[in-house]
Design a protein that fits this description.
With 454 residues, the protein is an alpha/beta fold. The chain has 17 helices and 18 strands.
C-alpha cells in the first residue's frame, strides 16, 4: 500500500487528503487539510475556466485575450530557413488520431526537411507514448516542457525562443483544442516572427484555441472546411486528406493468424464478426446510447453474430451499457469489449463488417479500414454535422446512412453477402490508393508548405 501519493489533484497520506489544488475563476486555489491557503494566476485560470465551459466554436475572444496576455513578451530574433519545419503539439499518445497524423507526416517528410517537434506536455508524452517517441526520434529532434499556468511567463519565453533558435519556415500546429499554453506559443510566434502558422484542425468537432493566429487552416473535407469558415471563423482554409501509410506498409494476415486472434477474444470460427472502435464518448448521447441499442438489436436478429468493441469506458458509460443489456444476458455474452490495441490491423481484419461509431464518427478509422480491406457501414449525423465524417468515404458511398434502421439493415445485408463485401472492399481500396496513401498526401503537404512560405 502506498503511504504518500498523488491522485488527480490531491496529495494523499494513508488515504487522507492533506493537500489539493482546485481551478476556479479567481485562479488556482491551494488547500491544506481542506483550508484554502493561496490563490495564484487569476487572469489565466479565469480564462482556463471559461474555455473549459465554452461551447461556442467561435474562439476569437479567447484568442484575443491570449494575444493581449503575451503582447509584452519578447522573443529572440528568428531567421526562418526554408529547409526547416517545426511541429507543435500538446500531448501525444501511442493511440490517437492526431498522434498518428504527426507520426506519419514526419516519417513521410524525412530527408526532405529538417524537423523538430515541440511538446507542451513532454513528460506525459514520454510516459504514455514510448513507441511514438522512439519512432519520431529517428526523423526529428523532440523538445518540450511540462507547461502549467503557474509560472507561465517564465516557461513560455524560453520555450518560444527554442523554436526561434531552430528557425523553421513554418510551424504545423496540432495542439489540444483547449491548450491555452500552446495557443499562447502560437500567438507569440505570430506576433514576433515571420514563421508561418499552419493549423492542422485535428479536433474539428470541438471549439479550438489558436485558429485566429493561423496563416492557413487544414481540414479534411468540404463540409468541415465550411464549418471552420462559418463557425470557427478561419479566414483561409484548405482541404488536405488525412494521411495513411505507404502502399506496401500493411500486413494482410492469413486465415490461421486471424482465427488465432478470434479464439483469444472468444469468437467461434463459424460466427460472423462485426466490430467498432474509438474513444468511449463517441458512442453515447448524454445518459443514453442509441449505438448500443442498435448493437443489441443486431445481436437479436443474428444469433451467430459477435460484436467486438475496441474501446475503454468510464463507470457512467459502462452503466449505460449494462442497463441496455440488463435483461439480455445471452446477447451480452456476444458483445465483447476489449481495450485499445496499438497494433490494431490484425484485429480490424477479423471483422466481416466494421460499424462506424455515432453520434461521433471516426475519420482515421474509416481510412484504416479501407487500407485493411474491411467493409464498413457509416453513420451520417445530420443533427450535428461537425460530428459526422462520412465525407471521408468515396463520393456516393452506398453504405452510409442518416437513419439507424437503414444502417442496421445494411450491416446485416453485408454480413450475409460475401460478394457485396468483396465488391465494396475493392472499390474502397482503390479510393484509398488515390486519396489517402502516404505519398499522395505528403505531396499535398509539400505544396501547401511552399505556397504558404513564399
Amino acid at each position: 500500500m502506498k503511504i504518500v501519493y498523488w491522485k488527480k489533484n490531491k496529495l494523499k497520506f494513508l488515504g487522507i487528503t492533506i493537500f489539493k489544488i482546485k481551478y476556479k475563476l479567481q485562479g488556482v486555489v491551494f488547500y491544506f487539510f481542506n483550508l484554502p491557503v493561496w490563490v495564484s494566476g487569476k487572469r489565466l485560470f479565469a480564462l482556463q475556466c471559461k474555455v473549459t465551459n465554452n461551447k461556442d466554436f467561435d474562439m476569437r475572444p479567447f484568442d484575443a485575450e491570449i494575444a493581449a496576455i503575451t503582447s509584452g513578451y519578447h522573443v529572440k530574433h528568428c531567421e526562418p530557413k526554408p529547409q526547416n519545419i517545426a511541429f507543435l503539439a500538446s500531448c501525444c499518445y501511442d493511440m490517437g488520431g492526431h498522434t498518428k497524423c504527426i507520426r506519419d507526416l514526419i516519417k513521410s517528410l524525412a530527408g526532405l526537411y529538417n524537423m523538430q517537434l515541440f511538446l507542451t506536455q513532454k513528460s506525459a508524452t514520454f510516459a504514455q507514448a514510448p513507441k511514438f517517441v522512439t519512432c519520431i526520434g529517428r526523423y526529428a529532434k523532440i523538445f518540450g516542457i511540462d507547461s502549467r499556468l503557474v509560472g507561465f511567463r517564465k516557461q513560455i519565453i524560453p520555450f518560444v525562443n527554442q523554436i526561434a533558435d531552430f528557425g523553421p519556415s513554418c510551424l504545423l500546429v496540432y495542439i489540444h483544442p483547449d491548450d491555452i499554453f500552446g495557443a499562447a506559443v502560437v500567438s507569440m510566434i505570430k506576433q514576433n516572427t515571420k514563421i508561418k502558422i499552419i493549423y492542422c484542425d485535428h479536433a474539428s468537432h470541438f471549439p479550438s484555441l489558436g485558429i485566429s493566429f493561423a496563416d492557413i487552416v487544414l481540414e479534411g473535407s468540404e463540409s468541415i472546411k465550411q464549418h471552420a469558415i462559418t463557425k470557427k471563423h478561419a479566414t483561409r482554409c484548405e482541404i488536405i486528406p488525412l494521411q495513411s501509410l505507404p502502399k506496401d506498409a500493411t500486413t494482410y494476415y492469413t486465415s490461421d493468424q486471424i482465427n488465432k486472434i478470434k479464439k483469444q477474444i472468444g469468437i467461434r470460427n463459424e460466427y460472423y464478426v462485426t466490430m467498432s472502435g474509438g474513444s468511449g464518448y463517441k458512442f453515447f448521447e448524454a445518459d443514453s446510447s442509441p449505438y448500443f441499442e442498435m448493437l443489441k438489436s443486431l445481436l437479436q436478429k443474428e444469433p451467430k453474430l459477435c460484436h467486438v468493441v475496441i474501446s475503454e469506458f468510464n463507470d457512467s458509460e459502462q452503466q449505460i451499457i449494462d442497463k441496455i443489456f440488463k435483461n439480455a444476458a445471452d446477447l451480452r455474452k456476444r458483445l465483447l469489449i476489449i481495450p485499445y490495441q496499438t497494433d490494431f490491423d490484425i484485429y480490424f481484419q477479423c471483422a466481416d463488417v466494421f460499424v462506424d461509431s455515432f453520434p461521433v464518427s471516426s475519420a482515421l478509422t474509416q481510412i484504416d479500414l479501407m487500407r485493411n480491406k474491411v467493409a464498413s457501414v457509416v453513420k451520417i449525423n445530420t443533427i450535428k454535422p461537425e460530428y459526422s465524417f462520412h465525407e471521408y468515404q468515396m463520393p456516393g458511398y452506398p453504405y452510409m446512412f442518416a437513419k439507424v434502421d437503414d444502417m442496421e439493415k445494411a450491416i446485416l445485408d453485408l454480413l450475409h453477402n460475401r460478394d457485396k463485401r468483396e465488391q465494396i472492399i475493392a472499390k474502397n481500396y482503390e479510393y484509398w490508393l488515390k486519396t489517402y496513401e502516404s505519398s499522395i498526401v505528403r505531396d499535398k503537404y509539400i505544396k501547401t508548405i511552399k505556397d504558404v512560405c513564399q
